[in-house]
Amino acid sequence: MVGPVREQAAFSAAVVDATPGFANRVAATPGRVDPWGRAIAWGAMLAGSIVPMIYRRSPAEDGYSVPIAQVLILVIAAVIFSRSSRLRPLSPFLLIIALLRLGWSVIAPALGDWPPVQSLMNNLDWGPKMFVTRLLNVAGALLMLTTFVGRHVTRDDLFLRIGKLNAPVKPERILWFRSPLRWWHLGPLIIVIFATAMTAFLFSHLRADFWLLSQHWQLLPWAVATAALNAANEEFQFRCVPLAHLRHVLPLGEAVWLTAVFFGLAHYFGQPSGWLGVLMATVAGFIWAKSMVETRGVALAFGIHMVQDVLIFYFLAMSMKN
Question: b/e map of 286-296 (b: 16 or more CB within 10 Å)?
Fold first, then answer.
């Protein structure tokens, strides 16, 4: 889960069997990628990431000055590129990166510090407090929706469908298999692998009191609700929308990696955290984005993501609840 961990805010390609319309839109991605477009897309991703805050050692060291500066730079660049026939397709992507940073690093924290919200949080138990904290980040999703005003964007473009879970998995160098495999076979295996890795990481990084687990079963509804909200929000903001805006800029395979790196960097101060957490989240982001592109739906990515967030919720409960 993206965001700094604290007690008040603990969670602080190939397309197979595509429908004709979707296949045509994918084919619209130019075979020869504009090198300037590629460089700007990757540069914008890094410029809008939390890398500047990583090297300042704390996400809150300068208040909102760093993310606001990032947002302004990206918005100005988006406006400039919108006036260039060559670079115009990049403008919406730069804008959604700016809005994502604005939502996560400025609006959500500001709402969390707003006295009425603080008063509400102080009167909530730990479980509902976690849910409200995650709810604040939905502001970013609402902002990102504005980038589609006046554009013909469909649910297929945003992968907002269950998808074909029996779609074949395209072999990749970082994956261990070479024989044909279907996503509905790989999905459960990925859940086990990710859950095992996440449990090992959290066990070594959080001082969880496992004796409290028997007392926390009443948190299960809040764990499921919070994990579902967070998974849906992050899948939409870090994958669905960026992939939709990159489809005319980069090949889908490269767009998958770009969104994966961006998602990984966002976890430096979250859970999993640190550079190991960045690596883990990058691999997870790659698998989830790959599943979305190849199944043409978000269901598999959402389901695996949600299971990981339930684990994080309970580890944080056992390590932070008084």
Answer: bbbbbbbbbbb
